[in-house]
Amino acid sequence: MLGRLNHVALAVPDLAAAVATYRNTLGAEVSEPQALPEHGVTVVFVNVGNTKIELLEPLGDGSPIAAFLEKFPSGGMHHLCYEVDDILAARDALKASGARVLGDGNPRIGAHGKPVLFLHPKDFLGTLTELEQS
Ligand code: CO
Q: How much distance in Å is there from the Cα of 114 to the middle of ligand 1?
């Protein structure tokens, strides 16, 4: 089922500062910020060759990363995203094995324009896990 690691996402309190850290301090290639109001975040992607680092800043009220940043004010690892060939087949197999899919269980269009789902962290070693249709 599980394919490549598509990205590791870090929630950050200040996207401009986070971009400066990756671009200037670490010398990485960083995309332009993209506002995703339907996901409650502004995102940039850091290209690190074999995968990407997604930097997420809260956008608007009720951002899904607001509570995370209250707990970890300087930011931290928020989720891992793996690619799957068939997101609906993956969802159905995971649900059948007892894993919990967040939200209404239907894929939504993520930051790359592809369907994504999130799996409950308590079912995956304390780690919020995103699946993206490859
Ligand atoms: Co993600």
A: 11
The closest alpha carbon to 7, from 128, 125, 124, belongs to 128
What are 82-127's pLDDT values in tens digits? 999 999 999 999 999 999 999 999 999 987 889 999 999 999 999 9
Report the CATH number that the domain containing residue 23 is assigned in CATH.
3.10.180.10
pLDDT at 20: 98
- What CA–CA distance (Å, rounded) separates 47 from 39? 21
Instruction: State how many domains the chain has.
Output: 1
The catalytically annotated residue of 54, 83, 130, 132 is: 130
Please tell me the distance between residue 64's alpha carbon and the centre of ligand 1 in angstroms: 12
- The confidence score (pLDDT) of residue 61 equals 87
CA of 7 to the centre of ligand 1 (A): 7
Query: What is residue 38's predicted lDDT score, i.e. its pLDDT?
Result: 85
What residues make up the domain containing 119? 2-133
Distance from the alpha carbon of residue 96 to the mean position of ligand 1, in angstroms: 24
CA 26 to each of CA 9, 32, 44, 116: distance values in angstroms, whole numbers, following the listed order = 17, 17, 15, 29
